From TrEMBL:
<dbReference type="InterPro" id="IPR013154">
    <property type="entry name" value="ADH-like_N"/>
</dbReference>
<dbReference type="InterPro" id="IPR036291">
    <property type="entry name" value="NAD(P)-bd_dom_sf"/>
</dbReference>
<feature type="domain" description="Enoyl reductase (ER)">
    <location>
        <begin position="13"/>
        <end position="331"/>
    </location>
</feature>
<protein>
    <submittedName>
        <fullName>NADP-dependent oxidoreductase</fullName>
    </submittedName>
</protein>
<dbReference type="InterPro" id="IPR020843">
    <property type="entry name" value="ER"/>
</dbReference>
<dbReference type="InterPro" id="IPR052585">
    <property type="entry name" value="Lipid_raft_assoc_Zn_ADH"/>
</dbReference>
<dbReference type="GO" id="GO:0016491">
    <property type="term" value="F:oxidoreductase activity"/>
</dbReference>
<dbReference type="InterPro" id="IPR011032">
    <property type="entry name" value="GroES-like_sf"/>
</dbReference>
<dbReference type="Pfam" id="PF13602">
    <property type="entry name" value="ADH_zinc_N_2"/>
</dbReference>
<dbReference type="Pfam" id="PF08240">
    <property type="entry name" value="ADH_N"/>
</dbReference>
Amino acid sequence: MKAAILDRYDKNGAALAVRDIPTPEPGAHEVLVRVHTAAVNPLDNMVIRGDVRLIVPYRTPLVMGNEFSGTVVRAGAAAGRFKSGDRVYGRMPLAKIGAFAEYAAVDESALAHVPGYLSMEEAACVPLTALTALQALELMEARPGQKLFISGGTGSLGAMAIPIAARMGLTVATNGSAQNEQRVRSLGASVFLDYKTQRYVDELHDMDCVLDTLGERELPDEFAVLKPGGHLVSLRGVPNGRFARREGLPTLKRALFGLAGRKLDKMAARKGQTYDFIFVHEDGTQLARVAELFPAERPLAVSIDGTYGLDQVNDALERVRSGHSQGKTLLRIDEA
């Protein structure tokens, strides 16, 4: 089979090589999936640069790719949730990525059935952002009736987190460019702030939860709009000791992340708030909630920026790296 492979880490962004490798054999709890479409994400460029090596130390050569949709070919001896022909999608297990390939052997616990109203291309847009939103809301202990602020919620994460949070009964506020206001409100945001004319730190207060997508520079203002005892979860901040313990990382890494995140933990502690860093993991059961939250009569909408072939994987990675994507960038792998 053909696969896109990273041969070495490169902080400047190494090119992937597309070449033939053996088709994987599924383990006892795995299913062999013929990959139809894989999504290309900022995370893929982070892996290539070695930015996540302290969290997940992948060895090279490495088949790249973190989320996908596809069709089950066959199941391992102890795998019973899916059968041949099932349409599935998922975030590849953290310990074994490899969606940029014609086939992938995936633990069945990472997979969910694709909702009937989604095409395979649309389905490939869902797993990473949906799981990030669901896992962040779970960490926040978010409940119906609470107020959630999503910083910079006009991107692909906001496009998933806003409707999920709204369907779960939260009141959602976000900020961004004014040209996105109508779209973001249609997704379920109740409050939209134009970042050029309105400072959210002046407009918002007593938020129950904050989802940070902007990074460490914004965290002081985000804590300021959070109520005492509130919860902040960051996708772009610094991993801390709470993260290391939650992920079961070795003692040395717990100590390192504890030191790295100490400043933010102290910032949170001033008003009894909590700070958590999130690195999304696979979870087929959580992903199945998408079909519950977005049934056919109230479907999930996704946005596709462009579609490339597997041999154009480096062009797709550059498109994402440039920051100009308006929706998900996809690799169409199954051309049959």
